[in-house]
Amino acid sequence: MKDDMMVFLETQQSDWVAGATNLPLSAIAQRIAMIADDWAGFWIKVDGWAPAEAAAALAEANLRRVASLAHSTQQWIRDEPLSDGDLVLAWTNLGAVLEGALRLFLTVFLADYLKDKKMLESRAFNKKYQVLTLPSNLTFDNMLDAYEKSELLPNNQLALCRRLQHNRNAIHAFKLRDVETDEAFQVALRELAALMRSLDGRMPRPF
């Protein structure tokens, strides 16, 4: 049986994506940028109320780079189809924003991350040194494995993460890799906006 929270988050994700169907893609990209801008302005300096270890890790995070990448998603919204190269770059752009969002979430909850026993079953756990790898040092694939093993995201959000991972890996151009279409990219843009909104709502802030 699914955890009630995961059922709620899965339904919420679907509802938010459906509710934004009639919004222009430029507005969706703007939402992504606004959330990332807010993160860059807020989470970079949270000492005094956030746990010291998390605050220190957040102070070193390059959230302004994530925000800049979020703004870059706007350039892939065009009237004409994207070239093959631009389509690969567009997917890579979305993947980079997603990666930043997921790292931020784990870092905000760093104390929980470090004591989560389910993480020991994931590739985030370094078996050689018998320690958990910090979120900032995880590979994207190992980070997604940690999210999956600890059931931190509902199935539809995890599926989006894996899709973005697959498509952004097409940046390794020498080996032939399939990349999804412009239309699939546009759907993923809407889904990423909903995922970021979901993560934002789950992260605590002082009143």
What do you see in this structure?
This protein is mainly alpha-helical. It has one domain (24-202). Helix content is 62%, strand content 2%. It contains 9 helices and 2 strands, in the order ααααααββααα. It has helices spanning 4-19, 25-42, 52-59, 63-72, 84-108, 110-115, 140-149, 155-168, 182-202, and strands spanning 125-126, 131-132. The chain has a two-stranded antiparallel ribbon. A hairpin with a 4-residue loop joins β1 (125-126) and β2 (131-132). The longest helix has 25 residues, at 84-108. The protein is globular, with a radius of gyration of 17 Å. 37% of the residues are buried.
Query: What fraction of residues sit in β-strands?
Result: under 5%
Secondary-structure element order, N to C: HHHHHHEEHHH
Rg over CA atoms: 17 Å
Number of strands: 2
**Category from helices, strands and their pairing:** mainly alpha
Provide a count of the helices. Answer: 9
Between the first and last Cα atoms, what is the distance in angstroms? 35 Å
Shape assignment:
globular
What is the number of domains? 1
Uncertain stretches: none
Helix content: 55-70%
Mean pLDDT: 95
Mind summarizing the main beta sheet?
A: 2 strands, antiparallel
Strand order of the largest sheet: 1-2
Give a short synopsis of this structure:
The protein has one domain. Helices cover 62% and strands 2% of the residues. The protein contains nine helices and two strands; from the N terminus they run H-H-H-H-H-H-E-E-H-H-H.
Please supply descriptive tags for the structure shown above.
207 residues; mainly alpha; two-stranded antiparallel sheet; globular
